[in-house]
Design goal:
The structure is a homodimer. Chain A is built from eight helices and seven strands. Chain A is an alpha+beta fold. The interface between A and B is medium-sized, with 16 and 15 residues. The structure holds a DNA duplex.
Chain lengths: 220, 220
DNA sequence: ATAAAAAGTTAGACAAGTCTAAAAATAATT
DNA sequence: AATTATTTTTAGACTTGTCTAACTTTTTAT
């Protein structure tokens, strides 16, 4: 039986590993978990003893298949709880992360699957992130960002990379939600901001690079 | 912010105090929490420092109004989660206790009230225990046990005192559920077992004293 | 290739929560 | 009232997870 802290470390290593593909550094984990590199070193040793990661001193960590399984299950739990919080309890998408961080650690053989069934097997969480299935299979984002869309092309918002409350509230204020259709009108070379128009909206407006780099989209 | 352990101690003190009415001894708490009296002594000191209980050495513990508030909120959370698990996720009433023990500790200002609303403000949990309202008011059982019902009288099952899995499964096997109507046919002086008949059932059967002492009923 | 910078690890300390073993206080019994 | 017995508390140890400060290894840059 793993502790909350252990699961959080595995999840962090999993998420960082997804982007980088290779061995994960101590400092990145520390940053992600708002802790200190020395604490990470300690924990990494314990996780290695438990065969959850492969680790050689000074060489970073990689999940074993067992560790990956735990991480994916935790991610699955997290995302299903987020769906529950938004769909059933009427939370907003910018409110659910911290709560799901707690709920994901509830220990049970059956809870997550029963929750999945109750929610009718959702495929994505409120931020557009894919929900791993019972067996741990995940359909990852294709990683097309709004910033890569050409002028005069349109796209649909399918996810957010940053799911911080600040970013999500900014999107709300601009009426950008999952499923929104956005057309790129022009690009500003100086600061890489882009001028966009939302479908069904006459008014066009400007989006900074920080924002367009954090919106997953699908071309249409 | 209180730890899971602290909340569990407060809940135990609250539950024991409900029955006894007075200062709660160390040994009872230790038994209820499956821990050792020495651990209880330690924790009791901490809870006293935090003004959650009143405590004088060798004199047992009593909840302060603040401590009682925490305990009742934890009970409220526990029972609402039990309703969710049974009504939404299709767990049986003998399966939900352990899970609710975990879920009750999720920290949030709004979660429990939102859950309450989602569940349409239930008044009782799957074992018939009353759910405290938002303000902490509870309608306690009137404590009428099946064992106190006279011959030829009928009653409705409104709750269980023992909510262990073993007891609940025994009730299931005898088709005794909340709302069942039971008529007392005869009593056996030797072992205090009673002979009963369920409404809508021709067959009558015998119930031991242990069982009849753990069923809350309402006379009809 | 060697010095400086960055990254990673160890050592020692701390807090929460638990335990065993022993001591102290209270309660029960003769 | 004195002696058991029971209950409660203390003392010291252990685990998990964290920290700071110091040290080592690896990487980077000159």
């Amino acid at each position: 039986m793993l502790s909350h802290a252990e699961e959080n470390y595995l999840k962090a290593i999993y998420n960082i590993g997804l982007h980088t593909g290779k061995s994960v550094n101590t400092n990145l984990i520390a940053e992600k978990l708002s802790t200190k590199p020395s604490s990470v070193s300690d924990m990494i040793k314990r996780l290695s003893d438990k065969k959850l990661i492969d680790y050689k001193k000074y060489q970073g960590a990689i999940l074993t298949s067992y560790g990956k399984k735990v991480a994916v299950n935790t991610v699955r739990s997290h995302r299903l709880w987020e769906v529950f919080l938004v769909d059933c309890l009427n939370y907003r998408w910018d409110e659910v992360h911290e709560l799901a961080e707690q709920l994901e650690h509830i220990k049970s053989d059956s809870l997550v699957d029963k929750l999945d069934a109750f929610l009718k097997f959702p495929t994505h969480d409120p931020h557009g992130d894919p929900i791993p299935d019972k067996k741990g299979n995940v359909n990852h984002h294709k990683n097309v960002m709004l910033s890569s869309i050409n002028i005069n092309e349109s796209c649909i918002v399918v996810g957010v990379k940053d799911s911080s409350s600040a970013f999500l509230k900014l999107l709300d204020r601009n009426s950008i939600a999952l499923g929104s259709t956005i057309k790129v009108i022009s690009k500003e070379p100086f600061d890489n901001s882009i001028h966009v128009k939302m479908k069904g909206n006459k008014q066009s407006f400007t989006i900074s690079q920080q924002v367009s780099n954090n919106l997953f989209v699908k071309k249409i």
